[in-house]
Amino acid sequence: MAENKYNVFFSYNDEALTVIADYNKELPITLDAFLADLKEKYQISSILTGKTIYALSLPIHEFHKKFGGVIIDENTSEPIEGAVVIVNDLNSITDAHGQFEFINISVPKHIRISHLAYGTRDIAISGYKNTIEIKISIKETPLDLVEISYLAKGILKSRDGGFVLNPKNQGVLGGLINADVFQSIQQLPGVSNAQENASDLFVHGSTPDQNLILWNGIRLYQTSHLLGGISSINSNSVNKVNFFSNGVNAKYGNHTGGLIEISTVMEDSIPSNVSLGVNLLDIDVASNVKVGHKLATDFSFRRSITDVVQFQPFNNLMNQTFKSSNITTSETLKKDVFYYDLSGGIHYQVNKNNSFRIQGLMMLDKFDYSFKEDKNLLNENLFVNSKSGGLIWNVIDIEKNTQIAANYTEYTMDYYQQLNEVEDDGKYEKEQLNTRKNSIKEINFNVDQEYMLSDISTLQVGYQWNEKKINFDYLSSHEDDYSIADSQKSIIGTHSIYGNFTLQQPKNYFIRGGVRLNYYDQLNSFQLEPRVYAKKAIFNYFNINASFEIKTQGLLQSYETVSETFENGNQLWVGVDGEQFPLLNVHQFSGGLSFNKSNILIDVEYFNKGIEGITTFNYGFLDPNDQDFHQGESEVEGFDFFLRNKTGIVTSWLSYTYTDAVNIFKNLNNSISFTGNQRLKHQVMASTALTIQNFNVALAWKWHSGKPYSYPSEVTELSATTYRFSYDDLNKFTLPDYKRMDISLVYNFKNKHNKMKPEIGFSFINILKAKNVLHRVFTYDFTKKEIIPIDRYSIQPTFNVSFRLKY
After folding, report:
1. Coil, helix or strand at residue 568
2. Cys-Cys with 510: which of 112, 142, 415, 504 at CB 3.0–4.6 Å?
């Protein structure tokens, strides 16, 4: 066309031909203008080799230069980190500044971009500039069953009904100094916590010990530091968290509550990164580093600074604990507190299809306290320690994926309490001694295979073998030589086979049906667990979902009040024996409806759960003086409502949960049902987050109705120092309503020319200084002949600050 217009001939190579073929605008009037346009817009040089012959060519270095660019969020103008950019068979991952780069390739016609939060999309490249800028946004389309942005950036709801959290890319949540895994989950609908502990997750009426918490496939028994103040897993080491309140895959057994999968594995889409941080409680370092194309490592170490210096957050956490104690401490003789967690993993790609991973995790909590008041001296020590290690082998083929995993875990809890009376001569006389020891040694072996039957269907089958050796010893002695001793040693072996069939079309439906068969050798019992979850798009922007599942659990926590200071000393892991500790059995149904259009998300879900095999030992004592054994069941019913609105730089959400839970125990309360101990009938949470360039702020407000409690109607003096309460009605009364407001602020010192990214954060908990009653028990004053309430209050206004350097 140009040759005819200008009456000349052009000689060119294939690369120049590709460029000329894309020249689709109107030709200039003159030949000189056309040649100048080729030079300016497409870097094509022209040389007159004959009277009417022009040789066209791209510079030689053009074939070997770099091609790259930057990807940014269309709405916030923030760079997008961790996006995978694919050109032909090559890929590059955007760094913290959203930048990517390819070497020794020409400018492509198309590129593909893939990101967890932004999905996968193909981008056409126009022109031949070697540096481009691409703007994308989180795409929420009609009938979208893939992923829905939820509370904040980095928190999504996936098509299989679970929530996906990305702590390293998570937006700010009110009250959190960092993306604490368990405290982030507490802000999701259907999760409650009346005790303000980080790891106490009551999921649709289930107790925390009924949850299955996995770290890279290894079960966690030690889930918190500082008596529940923070999570035991360093969130800066975590790349992904999956949380399910229902509809759990049949692969996961031996639990009757929620499922939490924590992964520190460095996936292909994650760039190498290192970070170092410090706050008023601890210091930590975390890294994900790729070494060549075959080796990837992850490492994390966090230790407290409370053994060196103790700031306000630590003091407030400890004051919250000790103010509920019978001893109102006038003098603290010793206060030693220390904790750490250490984790690491090595992933090696043997070849295209085979890879293996070696991993390990260690955690420790140590408390040593001494109090003196009048003539009483109380010494309390608590030591909690966990060690885990494992190996995973993956084989990936076109039609089948296989994973073989084995791991070993040791958990130990030692508690020691001694009360002495100071005599006039200064010597001590022992009045009371309580000791508790609890240990678990666990071996686990899994084989899992997944078959790709077609583009829309998969079949998953597997086998699991698990053995737990559980020991606990308890000794209580008094000055009059009266002593109580108890112990349990049990070995629980479980063999399980399972299968899942999944049928899905991402923008239309998702259906997964499965079944799990367990054999508990301790009980000589087979247990069948059917599971089903389905989600379907209806009309525009609407989805419906439903699930049904049966689950069993052979491990639980027994609760007996010994320490009013260290709650961990009251909780002991025990194995089921079919008598004192029966097998837990849960059946659960849920159904929901969601609406997602533009910036509005509405999610409603109904749930109904029946729990059989509970006892007053694992559901807590209504009366610390009632040591009788009672067995029963629990029924939980309710619904969750969630509303989220995104308007420009502001994201706001509101959630409401209604829960009705009743327990019934044989020979307790005349075998008449009564309100569950941890029921929070109404719970409301609301938050507003604002993002302005490098500045992020989030305000969170929480309110819930009071927790039930029983008021003694009568007291019987059994001796000069012992008594027993009687009750007319159980859990008839409720504590005052709970309310709290928190705020968090984070500023990122981003600089596109520097890979170092400093970040400073501030959090303020309970900024309105609310004094909430978390727990109420009763004691008896023999002198005054009065029943005295003892209240445990919520945390005081607490400020924390953190500084983090990311690379």
Report:
1. helix
2. 504
What sign for the dihedral angle of Cα 135, 140, 145, 149? positive
CB 590 within 8 A of CB 546: yes
Angle (nearest 5°) at CA 227 between 223 and 233: 30
Q: How far is CA 364 from the centre of its chain?
A: 20
Q: Are 269 and 228 in contact (CB under 8 A)?
A: no
How remote is the C-alpha of 314 from its chain's centroid? 23
Residues 6+ apart with CB under 8 A from 89: none
Residue among 607, 601, 693 at smallest CA distance from 644: 601
600-615 and 584-597 as β-strands: parallel, antiparallel, unpaired? antiparallel
Q: Phi then psi for 411, rounded to 5 degrees?
A: -130, 135
Q: What is the dihedral of CA 307, 313, 315, 320, to 10 degrees?
A: -130
DSSP for 302-314, please give it.
EEESTTT---HHH
Q: Burial of 68 by CB count in 10 Å (0-12 exposed, 13-18 middle, 19+ buried)? A: middle
pLDDT in tens, 385-420: 999 999 999 998 878 999 999 999 999 999 888 888
Cβ atoms 618, 570 nearer than 8 A: no
CA nearest neighbour of 495 among 554, 450, 437, 549? 554
Q: Where would I find the H helices in 65-193?
A: 181-185
Instruction: Judge whether residue 665 has pLDDT over 90.
Output: no
pLDDT digits (tens, 9 = 90+) for 262-293: 999 887 667 788 999 999 999 999 999 988 88
d(CA 91, CA 102): 8
* CB neighbourhood size of 650 (10 A): 13
Distance, CA of 287 to CA of 736 (rounded, Å): 45
Q: In what order do the strands lie in the sheet with 90-93?
A: 90-93, 84-87, 110-115, 119-124
- What gap in Å lies between CA 36 and CA 59, rounded to an integer? 15
Q: Exposed, middle or buried: residue 710 (CB in 10 Å: 0-12, 13-18, 19+)?
A: buried
